[in-house]
Amino acid sequence: MTRNLIPTIELGGTHVAVAVIDTGARSIVDGTYRTRPLDSGGDADEILEDIAAAARTLGSDHGRRWAVAVPGPFDLAEGIARYSDVGKFDALHGIDLRARLADALEANAISFTFVNDADAFALGEHAAGAARGLSRFCCVTLGTGVGSGWVVAGERTDGAAPGGELHLLEFEGQRIEARMSRRAIRAAYARQMRLTAEVPDVREIAELARSGDPIALEVLEDAFSYLGRALADPLGRFDAEALVIGGTIARSWDLLEAPLSAGLGRPGLPVIRAELSHEAPMIGAAYAAQAALAGSRIS
């Protein structure tokens, strides 16, 4: 088995994670995964130093082809952050992360491959998770917002969404995330319960639903059913073989699957829970970096 080691960084809204990925084994090298808190509302120098400090823990016993999974909006080709009024990483707007990380890590700037985090998640599931063997699928990640990755024959595509991003689509007169996102679910529950403070998070709302709280159950069923209806047309136009669902909200699969499938209204389309969690975007980003170097697709 070929042992190709790629150091990988995954940038999240509240954390930075790093690991060395063995693309031959399609897995994280034991003992290399680390995560640390990250203040996405901090200033640019603090954010960049936290990222670099996490990356330095990987040492040098690996290849020097870095993979970086980042949330959008981001100029992946140039390595420049385009965050502006998105609620996180605004201080990085216009900054050349490729150059700054190369300097901080004493690496060659051209060794960095940037990958959208939702695309990386989808590619990771294709390489080592629930989407192995699929040739055409959409992977939707549910958490702070709605992320989406579209894969055809091991390569990411834009699928049936602008730039590949479902959250930019409008359905029933509003953006999808206005009804299906962490913020939207919490706001809907607060309205129904007439709460003005101490609004429970989605995980707590899910626990309330399981314990028989009718308002919590109604709020979640409404959000998941809406998502299904919103996805029906894009998935049909894409001719997807399957829909893969990941992200933190997918942990409430027992509450999500039925209303999502009912809203989707496509009994012949498999709705599959992602098998990986934190590993998915890191494995996918590493594979994308390897493919970029080789000029080939992920197989």
Automatic annotation (TrEMBL):
Keyword Kinase: yes
Domain of life: Bacteria
Keyword Ligase: no
Stored Pfam families: ROK (PF00480)
GO function term, MF aspect, one: kinase activity
Family: Belongs to the ROK (NagC/XylR) family.
Name assigned to this protein: Glucokinase
